[in-house]
Amino acid sequence: MKDYAYAENRIIIGGKPGLIESKSRVTLETQKNEAIGILNNKFKGIAYTDNIPQNYSINYEVNPNFNQEEQEYISKIDFIPICVDPDWMPYEKVDEKGNYLGLVADYMKIISDSIGKEFRVVKTSSWDESLSFARQRACDILPGAVPTPLRKEFLNFSEPYIFLPLVVATNLEEIFILDFERVAGKSFALIKGYAAIELLRKKYPEMIIKEVPDARTGLEMVRKKKVYGYIDTLPTISYQLKTNRMPNLKISGELDLDYDVSIAVRNDRPLLFSIINKAIATISSEERQKIFYNWISVSYDKGFDYVFFWEVVGVSLVILSLLFYRNLMISRYNKKLIEANKKLDFLYKTDKLTGLFNRHIIDEETEKEVLRANRYNLGFSVVLLDVDHFKQINDTYGHHVGDSVLVEIAFILKNNLRKTDVVGRWGGEEFIVICPETQLTNAAHLAEKLRSQIECHQFSGVEKTITASFGVSAYRVDDTVESLIKRVDSALYFSKRNNRNCVTVRD
């Protein structure tokens, strides 16, 4: 994938022809509309105002859209304390003079006018401290916050009003990230207290996250190769790359993760929450667009040297023709390569005979479940089964019939499990099932169901009844993969010693 270097400050977005840079605001400079589309799809609407001071002066009457109870609430308060991110441009910041600036600040100005009360910024040194102040009820509102389960314990969140693309910045030599799953196990820097940390840890438990105080520190860690990448919003990273002069870094990919900004209100202020939601609803699409273009402005390079163009047009056509032919050949090669990689990926993950996951993948999935269980206190269970007297089947009917029996058992397992369960061939005639978020009793019932299905099944080419023995156990606190599998294997061994065709449970 080609990397594109752009104009004055050489902010590079790997694999995408567009640029987000900054003057005192963020500027998008491109010859095409792709990058503009990325942002326009995220920022559904937005408004223009001048820079906004920390304390707003209000001369408007209370908005008539508020009911009597809400108007009475507004009339009883002098101002509304808010906690902000002191350094999150172009969205919000508090400058050296105490002025509250940014895209979010412009929204709060309009809402302040609508309510008829001023917002006063409570001084904090970081976003993490702002979150702490909000939890302690030192402020009533966080103007630019992303909802997470932990934050919802003490905050109510309005409808989203800003839709942000979340991206990763890396060093120039890194390739463009088409599939984030492939790099999720690497180390990434994120600002301490950001919602993305909680969301990413849930989605990618194997990710190594280094918390940093600000964006510049995170990008410096990337530059010094202390972490693989820095994750933040697209305009924020572009703003930092320009203002801090970091030409050796680039934006290498976008995360498939919703990161939509709302206004958070302390959850013991239901009337204030209702007032804020109504105020947001009154902001027109024109005002939203003006805010957007005030802080995320778009410019095009319209200059064109026709004399120079006609001097080089002949050579350009030849070069373009060669490039077109070369790209056509590369495209055909890439299609073949993609198909080959799909086949390799299938062979890497699956057992050739049964089509189930192989032991290597089962080991990885079990390790992930142990990590999830330790981090989120979520239990899971494991079922291990072994086909009874399988050697006799091979000796009596031949290995081709034995293989057919294993394929049919794999079919029975796949058709009696949930989509969330992971099933694989453990080795020889042994199979294993990982059951996420499943209690031991439920796993035991599942094992008994599978045992009965196998016993009742008429296997092709075999006249006798085929059965299987089962061992079941559940994750314990501080279990390792080895200790859990050893306990399940012990339960299976007990079943095989006791007449087989049964289920043994070890808690």
From TrEMBL:
InterPro entries: Diguanylate_Cyclase (IPR050469), GGDEF_dom (IPR000160), Nucleotide_cyclase (IPR029787), Rev_trsase/Diguanyl_cyclase (IPR043128), Solute-binding_3/MltF_N (IPR001638). The chain crosses the membrane at residues 306-325. The keyword Transmembrane helix applies. Signal peptide: none annotated. Keywords: Membrane, Transmembrane, Transmembrane helix. Gene3D superfamilies: 3.30.70.270, Periplasmic binding protein-like II. This is Diguanylate cyclase domain protein. It comes from the Bacteria. Residues 378-507 form the GGDEF domain. GO terms for molecular function: diguanylate cyclase activity.
